Amino acid sequence: MKPHCTDSTDWTAGFYNPNHCLDALQKLEDTDYKVYQSRDLEFLAPGAKSKTSLSAVRLPRKYTSGTCTIIIAMLSTIIENILPGQVHQAQEYGTTDVSKFSHLWSIAAWVDRHCVNKNSYLGWCATGRNGGIGVFTVATKSQVNRILSSVLLLGNTSRSADPDLDPS
């Protein structure tokens, strides 16, 4: 799947620092990638029940540095008409999907490389075995970040605060 890039002020808020996007990517690496690395995990939308025997990670997850935020969320929870390039309606995506934090980090880095660095845009990409996970890079003060945060009820991303994250 390819990243969908945009320069819309709904995403950029008129300003973001690309270096902050790299710092947010580093937070993703430090918070989850280094712990889980290449382990298959089942990612769950809020309220979804696990469908596999894999360790489960409840989404959404949010990594913010200054003017840039990376959000990982199930696409089934995203309202329509805020995602450039979105081809399916939210109800067409599953509430669970399987991936690895190493892959999610790679997707976030790909969005950074192709959208932020190449075009000075922000963007998102679908991923997961069934394409049901979205990796978003948005300006922290953007309308899209506010919408995603209010719709998804984003909480603390620390492992100690989230009982669904068990690195064992």
Describe, in plain words, how this protein is organized in 3D.
With 168 residues, the protein is α+β, with helices and mostly antiparallel strands. The strands form two sheets. It has a five-stranded antiparallel beta sheet, sandwiched between helices. The chain has helices spanning 9-12, 18-36, 101-119, 143-152, and strands at residues 4-6, 41-44, 56-58, 61-65, 68-74, 96-99, 122-127, 133-139. It is globular, with a radius of gyration of 14 Å. Helix 2 (18-36) runs antiparallel to helix 3.
Count every beta strand, where a strand is a DSSP E run of 2 or more residues: 8
Helix content: 25-40%
Indicate the overall shape.
globular
Summed up, the helix count is: 4
Coarse structural class: alpha+beta
How can the largest sheet be summarized? 5 strands, antiparallel
Spell out the helices and strands N to C. Answer: EHHEEEEEHEEH
Instruction: Give the N-terminus to C-terminus distance in angstroms.
Output: 31 Å
The low-pLDDT segments are 154-168
Overall pLDDT, averaged?
85
Q: Nearest-angstrom radius of gyration?
A: 14 Å
- What is the spatial order of strands in the main beta sheet? 1-7-8-5-4
Q: What share of residues are in beta strands?
A: 15-25%
In short:
The protein is an alpha+beta fold. Helix content is 31%, strand content 23%. α2 runs antiparallel to α3 (101-119).
Can you give keywords for this protein?
five-stranded antiparallel beta sheet, 168 residues, 31% helix, 4 helices, three-stranded mixed beta sheet, disordered C terminus, single chain, alpha+beta
